[in-house]
Amino acid sequence: MPSEKILQKKKEQVIELSQKLKEAKSIILADYRGLTVEQDTKLRKELREAGVEYRVVKNSILSFAAKESNLEGLQEFFKGPTAIAISSTDEVAPSKILDKYAKEFNNLELKAGVVEGNIIDVEGIKELASTPSREELLAKLIGSLQSPLYGLAIGLNAIAEKQEQPQEAETVEA
Q1: Model pLDDT for residues 1-44, shown as the tens digit of each residue
Q2: Second label for 85, Cα 20 to 30 Å away, from 2, 50, 118, 152?
């Protein structure tokens, strides 16, 4: 039987993790068995740079935290070693990065995910990973808004130049 101190520490971990799960925009579960230290370090570095928290968590703690966060549907995926990637700012980043590395490293296996409270399977993760990021979508929007304005500016400039040329000709003849 674990000591009271150990139980209290585990309860604190559950509370902390359940709070992060509630606030998360995106959560991805993965089985990391077989990754080398170099591969894992590379993966962790890219996730950290994207603002994604990535860590290995005991399935029992994950299970309690999922219950606290109303994510009981994830219970079936808490088998074997489980790493969790949590993003509270970007819905797409964890799936993009983990999907990229799952393709590169055959030993990294995606299990499931949660996006804004909805549980998704591996196919859902891959579909989410293929969508453009928020920054890419904003860039496309700005580009599509600028294009007509640029065309309008060129047209107005051409009209202004056309009107200036006849006026010069009239002053020369007079």
Answers
A1: 678 898 899 999 999 999 999 999 999 999 999 899 999 999 99
A2: 2
State pTM to two decimals: 0.73
Q: How far is CA 53 from the centre of its chain?
A: 11
Query: Based on the domain organization, do 145 and 127 belong to the same domain?
Result: no
Biggest alpha carbon distance in the chain? 109
Nearest residue to 90 (alpha-carbon basis) of 49, 133, 37: 133
Whether residue 127 sits in one domain with residue 41: yes
Task: Quote the domain boundaries for residue 157.
Answer: 132-174
Do 108 and 169 fall within a single domain? no
Q: How far apart are CA 111 and CA 172, in angstroms?
A: 80
Q: Give exposure, 28-39, as e/b (b: 16+ Cβ within 10 Å).
A: bbbbbeebeeeb
The DSSP code sequence of 37-89 is HHHHHHHHHHHHHTT-EEEE--HHHHHHHHHHTT-GGGGGG--SS-EEEEESS
Clarify whether residues 100 and 153 are in a common domain. no
Query: Residue holding tokens 């051409």?
Result: 158
